[in-house]
Amino acid sequence: MRRVIIVGATGSIGRQAIDVIARHPDRFSIAGLSAHSDEGGLLAAASRFGGAALCLSSRAPESEAVAFHGPDGLRALVRDTDADTVLNAAAGAAGLSVSFDALASGKDLALANKETIVMAGRLAFEAAGEAGRRILPVDSEHSAIFNMIERFGREAVRGVVITASGGAFRDEPLESLPGKTPSDALSHPTWDMGAKITVDSASMANKGLEVIEAARLFGLSGSEIDVVLHPESRVHSFIRTRDGSLYAQMSRPDMRIPILNALAWPESIDESVADMDPCDVPLRFSRPDPARYPLLGTAYEALASGEGATDAYNAANEAAVAAFMEGAIRFTDIAVVVSRTLERAYPRTLDGLEAVLEVDGDARRVAASIVKEIA
Ligand code: NDP
Ligand code: MG
Q: Within a 13 Å sphere around the CA of 83, how many CA atoms are in the beta-carbon half?
């Protein structure tokens, strides 16, 4: 029985993780749950499982059933609750400390929060090494690559091909993109996800973050990571082995599969929610258009510049997406804010969480001033 703490239990990944655990009560139990401000959602989730420790990370709770609150409460939930695995499904840079607390307290880290790896991947692996614990990716592309690399061996792999759905504006005329609203950006063709990542899908900042994530998770250089557009979201990624073969992992698009795999690793568990009929839909692959998705190229540039630049890429994009959601800038300005923020020089390596947070803060300030100029 694996005891799991879910941070971000009320979000898209968190809710699907609860479903996975409810479907496999013989394998998993819930030791703790956190939400940021959705106390009703937290209590509803908890009512399905007795005895889980609960935390509301933004404020004091109304219910006595919620024992932990605030940022310190979240740290205590993650560190002090008896559990085997922390599923970090918090959105954004706020998930960083959750990951380090999980590893430092001797728990495996099932990681949906890709920001952890983009901001501080090397440090996270150092922390995992020190604790003798594993980082198990939940992001569907990285889950696919992880599962294949673990089976083939890293030395057999020459590179990876990450697939991208293309997001909400894949087939829209280029000249219509500046006029797109937040609600336009939130209608994703294949995946049902949280707001921020859905906007990132439309701009492909999500794929940019995932290229950086793959580089740090699997020790790959930018030239070893390819991105292809694949509108059907059935192939979750490929690995290319040394003999030039491509191997793919396929299923219907359903995050419950990578969540289950991360929670169960190294075991395999029977599950059929995403079984795929190969005759189901024809699969298409093509190159993403750099004019439509400038943030993808910017991610490769950041990767080449080092850890400070990739940290700044994430921070600037979070700030720009927030400004877009508030109606302060246009959709196409997100890419402008990020690339202009990256014109500054950032350190090649970040040797501690303090340095990571300093660059994060600097980049957000630079991005905010560019937003002001544009708005
Ligand atoms: P959602 O916005 O749907 O959910 C976010 C969750 O985190 C909610 O439970 C929210 O609580 C909580 N939360 C928000 N802010 C904070 C904070 N400051 N501190 C702690 N918890 C917080 O996001 P998703 O589930 O879509 O995404 C979560 C992570 O997983 C992201 O890093 C995303 O990139 C990644 N991911 C998501 C995928 C998906 O399919 N959704 C796929 C691959 C990766 P509350 O509800 O109370 O606000
Ligand atoms: Mg993904």
A: 33
